[in-house]
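[audit] Reproducing an earlier prediction to check determinism. Same input, same settings, fresh worker. If the C-alpha cells differ from the archived copy the diff job will pick it up downstream; this log only records the rerun itself.
[audit] input (205 residues):
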Amino acid sequence: MTGQTNWWVKGILFENCNCQVVCPGHFHFTQMCTHERCQGYWGVDVTEGLFGAVSLAGVKVVIVFDAPQNMASGNWVVTTYIDQDSSAEQQAALETILSGEAEGPWKVLGRFIGERKPTRREQIIFTAEPKSRSAAVGDFLRSLITPLKGRDRDRPVTLENCYNQIHAPSQELGMGSTSYDDGAFRVETSNTHALQSRFSWSGSF
C-alpha cells in the first residue's frame, strides 16, 4: 500500500491479563503490574471502518502480549491472530494499523514492542451476551469475560474519563479467565483484570 491513505475503524475492544483488577499498567505503563510479567490479550471486534477503499467491517483480531512488569521498559512480545475469513487486503490494512505504520494510537504502543511475531490466520469466534463475552482462536485460545457487579445490577461498573491510547475514555470493568497455548508460550488467568470499550481509531498512511 503506497501513497496517502486515510483510515478509520470503530468497534469493541476487550482485554484480559493476569493482573489483579484493575491492571496498573492499563492506566500508565510506568506503573508496576501485579506480576513479574504482564500477560494477556486484546480482542478487536471491528463493526465498521475503511482503510482507503478497503472495508474493515466484520474483521476480528486477537493480539496476545507478553510484557515486563514495568511495561514502559519495552521489549513486549506480541502475536497477532486475524480471522481466517478476512481478505488479504483486510489483513494487510489491519497489520498496517496495528503495527503503528498508519499513525493513530497503535503508533504509540509500537514503540514498546520488541518482537512482533508473524501474523497467524485462524478461525476467531467472538460472542457477546448480556452477562458475558467470550473469545476463541483456533485451538490456541479460550477466554470468558464477565462484568463486575455494581450496586445497580442493570448497569455496568465503569471507568470514566480514563486516558488510554487504544481504549475509549469510558470503559466497562469485568473479570476474565483465559487459557492460551501456542506451543511456545502459555497464558493462564482466572478471574483477573478485564474490561471493554467502544473504540474509535483513525489516521493516515
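[audit] rerun output stored. Observation attached for the diff report: The chain has a mean pLDDT of 95.
[audit] end
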